[in-house]
């Protein structure tokens, strides 16, 4: 079985699909606006990546579904594995509708929005191309977004090398605002 606890220093971090679409749709609806169709579809009819998850058994060192937000769920992998990760924010995949957002707003949404039901997984560097071939075979998009390192915590790195500070990592089930 794929668990949260197998990520190792040097592994690559991947995400399936486009995180943030469901969160964007929810934010738009809460503001009284109609969300873009692709985002509404992601919120109303998420597509669990079951085939990809099963196929990753051969390659992935750790895996988690992105339901509480990419930062929060990847954080669970990092904690269980005793490692850190650097995410290159400019590598986060985006649809045309999400690309219209200001970069900082888009990155925050993609890192903290929930209900995406995509997969975030780590893969030893030697298998990164195998995973990309596998995704094409399954007609599922995957994007390498970062690397696992020593230490602890998540570092969301801006294109200029700076770090994006997050107020929160994602949905918190037992917080007073939940």
Helix and strand topology:
Layout: E1 12-16, H1 21-30, H2 37-44, H3 50-55, E2 62-66, H4 70-81, E3 84-88, H5 96-99, H6 103-112, E4 118-123, H7 128-137, E5 142-149, E6 153-157
Summarize the structure.
With 178 residues, the chain is α+β, with helices and mostly antiparallel strands. The chain has 7 helices and 6 strands; from the N terminus they run βαααβαβααβαββ. It is 34% helix and 19% strand.
Protein architecture, described:
With 178 residues, the chain is of the alpha+beta class. Helices cover 34% and strands 19% of the residues. It has 7 helices and 6 strands. Strands 2-4-1-5-3-6 form a 6-stranded mixed β-sheet. Helix 1 packs across helix 2 (37-44). The longest helix is centred in the middle third of the chain and has 12 residues, at 70-81. It is globular and about 45 Å long. The model is unreliable at 169-178 (pLDDT under 50).
Report the major sheet. 6 strands, mixed
Q: Give the topology string: H per helix, E per strand.
A: EHHHEHEHHEHEE
The low-confidence runs, each spanning 5 or more residues with pLDDT under 50, are: 169-178
Distance between the termini: 30 Å
Strand fraction band?
A: 15-25%
Strands ordered across the widest β-sheet: 2-4-1-5-3-6
Please report the total strand number as a whole number. 6
Salient structural properties:
178 residues; alpha+beta; globular
